[in-house]
Protein backbone atom coordinates (compact mmCIF):
# COMPACT_ATOMS: atom_id res chain seq x y z
CA UNK A 1 0.00 0.00 0.00
CA UNK A 2 1.17 3.52 -0.78
CA UNK A 3 2.59 5.67 1.99
CA UNK A 4 -0.25 8.22 2.22
CA UNK A 5 1.68 10.62 4.45
CA UNK A 6 4.54 10.72 1.92
CA UNK A 7 2.08 11.40 -0.91
CA UNK A 8 0.49 14.21 1.13
CA UNK A 9 3.90 15.75 1.78
CA UNK A 10 4.79 15.64 -1.93
CA UNK A 11 1.44 17.17 -2.94
CA UNK A 12 1.97 19.98 -0.42
CA UNK A 13 5.06 21.04 -2.38
CA UNK A 14 3.10 21.66 -5.62
CA UNK A 15 2.32 25.15 -6.84
CA UNK A 16 -1.32 26.04 -7.50
CA UNK A 17 -0.82 25.68 -11.24
CA UNK A 18 0.92 22.31 -10.85
CA UNK A 19 -1.94 21.11 -8.64
CA UNK A 20 -4.51 22.25 -11.23
CA UNK A 21 -2.58 20.40 -13.95
CA UNK A 22 -2.48 17.27 -11.77
CA UNK A 23 -6.26 17.45 -11.26
CA UNK A 24 -6.80 17.71 -15.01
CA UNK A 25 -4.51 14.75 -15.66
CA UNK A 26 -6.30 12.62 -13.06
CA UNK A 27 -9.73 13.60 -14.40
CA UNK A 28 -8.68 12.50 -17.89
CA UNK A 29 -7.03 9.29 -16.66
CA UNK A 30 -9.95 8.18 -14.51
CA UNK A 31 -12.80 9.72 -16.50
CA UNK A 32 -14.16 11.67 -13.52
CA UNK A 33 -14.61 15.28 -12.50
CA UNK A 34 -13.06 16.81 -9.39
CA UNK A 35 -15.87 19.38 -9.21
CA UNK A 36 -17.91 18.79 -6.09
CA UNK A 37 -21.64 18.39 -6.67
CA UNK A 38 -23.49 21.52 -5.64
CA UNK A 39 -26.43 20.99 -3.34
CA UNK A 40 -28.87 23.84 -3.66
CA UNK A 41 -30.80 24.47 -0.48
CA UNK A 42 -34.12 26.23 -0.64
CA UNK A 43 -33.85 28.92 1.99
CA UNK A 44 -36.80 31.18 2.63
CA UNK A 45 -35.78 34.83 2.73
CA UNK A 46 -32.39 34.21 1.03
CA UNK A 47 -30.16 33.81 4.08
CA UNK A 48 -26.41 33.19 4.23
CA UNK A 49 -26.77 29.59 3.00
CA UNK A 50 -28.20 30.83 -0.29
CA UNK A 51 -25.28 33.24 -0.74
CA UNK A 52 -22.75 30.47 -0.08
CA UNK A 53 -24.43 28.18 -2.63
CA UNK A 54 -24.28 30.95 -5.25
CA UNK A 55 -20.54 31.56 -4.83
CA UNK A 56 -18.71 30.57 -8.00
CA UNK A 57 -15.97 27.96 -7.55
CA UNK A 58 -14.85 27.32 -11.13
CA UNK A 59 -13.56 29.93 -13.54
CA UNK A 60 -12.56 30.11 -17.19
CA UNK A 61 -9.49 32.23 -17.92
CA UNK A 62 -10.25 33.98 -21.22
CA UNK A 63 -7.71 35.93 -23.28
CA UNK A 64 -9.32 39.15 -24.50
CA UNK A 65 -6.16 40.63 -26.07
CA UNK A 66 -2.52 39.51 -26.16
CA UNK A 67 -1.35 43.11 -25.98
CA UNK A 68 1.92 44.47 -27.37
CA UNK A 69 4.19 41.77 -25.86
CA UNK A 70 2.78 38.72 -27.64
CA UNK A 71 5.97 36.66 -27.16
CA UNK A 72 5.77 37.12 -23.38
CA UNK A 73 2.10 36.13 -23.45
CA UNK A 74 2.91 33.00 -25.48
CA UNK A 75 5.57 32.07 -22.90
CA UNK A 76 3.05 32.57 -20.10
CA UNK A 77 0.43 30.46 -21.90
CA UNK A 78 2.97 27.66 -22.35
CA UNK A 79 3.92 27.81 -18.67
CA UNK A 80 0.29 27.69 -17.54
CA UNK A 81 -1.01 25.06 -19.96
CA UNK A 82 2.06 23.02 -20.99
CA UNK A 83 1.02 23.50 -24.63
CA UNK A 84 3.54 23.43 -27.44
CA UNK A 85 4.77 26.60 -29.10
CA UNK A 86 2.45 26.34 -32.12
CA UNK A 87 -0.70 25.79 -30.01
CA UNK A 88 0.23 28.54 -27.54
CA UNK A 89 0.88 30.96 -30.43
CA UNK A 90 -2.50 30.15 -32.01
CA UNK A 91 -4.18 30.68 -28.65
CA UNK A 92 -2.44 34.03 -28.14
CA UNK A 93 -3.48 35.22 -31.61
CA UNK A 94 -7.16 34.35 -31.16
CA UNK A 95 -9.07 36.80 -28.98
CA UNK A 96 -11.56 34.96 -26.79
CA UNK A 97 -9.33 31.89 -26.32
CA UNK A 98 -9.90 29.96 -23.12
CA UNK A 99 -6.51 29.53 -21.51
CA UNK A 100 -7.96 27.48 -18.62
CA UNK A 101 -11.44 26.00 -18.27
CA UNK A 102 -13.21 25.23 -15.00
CA UNK A 103 -10.14 26.11 -12.94
CA UNK A 104 -10.31 26.68 -9.20
CA UNK A 105 -10.37 30.24 -7.94
CA UNK A 106 -6.71 30.30 -6.86
CA UNK A 107 -5.44 28.70 -10.10
CA UNK A 108 -7.52 31.08 -12.22
CA UNK A 109 -6.33 34.15 -10.32
CA UNK A 110 -2.70 33.00 -10.52
CA UNK A 111 -2.99 32.40 -14.28
CA UNK A 112 -4.66 35.80 -14.73
CA UNK A 113 -1.86 37.47 -12.78
CA UNK A 114 0.86 35.78 -14.87
CA UNK A 115 -0.82 36.65 -18.16
CA UNK A 116 -1.49 40.26 -17.19
CA UNK A 117 2.14 40.65 -16.09
CA UNK A 118 3.08 39.45 -19.60
CA UNK A 119 0.88 42.22 -21.06
CA UNK A 120 -2.36 40.37 -21.88
CA UNK A 121 -5.91 41.50 -21.16
CA UNK A 122 -7.67 38.68 -19.30
CA UNK A 123 -11.23 38.01 -18.16
CA UNK A 124 -12.37 35.47 -15.59
CA UNK A 125 -15.75 33.98 -16.43
Describe the structure.
It is built from six helices and three strands. It has 125 residues and is of the alpha+beta class. It has one domain (4-124): Ribosomal Protein L30, Chain: A (2-Layer Sandwich), CATH 3.30.1390. A three-stranded antiparallel sheet has the order 2-1-3, covered by helices on one side. The radius of gyration is 17 Å and the shape is elongated. The model is unreliable at 36-44 (pLDDT under 50).
Tell me the layout of helices and strands.
Layout: H1 4-12, H2 16-30, H3 48-54, E1 58-65, H4 70-81, H5 85-93, E2 97-104, H6 105-117, E3 121-124
Antiparallel strand pairs: 1-2, 1-3
Task: Give the key terms.
125 residues, alpha+beta, Ribosomal Protein L30, Chain: A, three-stranded antiparallel beta sheet, 6 helices, 52% helix, elongated
Q: Based on DSSP secondary structure assignment, what is the total number of beta strands?
A: 3
Please state the average pLDDT score. Answer: 79
The level of helicity is 40-55%
Query: Which residue ranges are poorly predicted, with pLDDT under 50 across at least 5 consecutive positions?
Result: 36-44
Broad CATH class: Alpha Beta
Number of domains: 1
CATH architectural grouping: 2-Layer Sandwich
Can you count the helices? 6
Could you say what the CATH topology is called? Ribosomal Protein L30, Chain: A
Gross morphology: elongated
Q: Over the alpha carbons, how many angstroms does the gyration radius reach?
A: 17 Å
Biggest sheet, spatial arrangement of strands: 2-1-3
Q: Termini, distance in Å?
A: 41 Å
Strand percent estimate: 15-25%
Structural class assignment: alpha+beta
Amino acid sequence: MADIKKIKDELSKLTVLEAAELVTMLEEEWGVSAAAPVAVAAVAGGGEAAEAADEKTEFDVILKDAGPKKIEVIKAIRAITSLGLKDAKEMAEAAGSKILEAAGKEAAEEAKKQLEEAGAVIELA
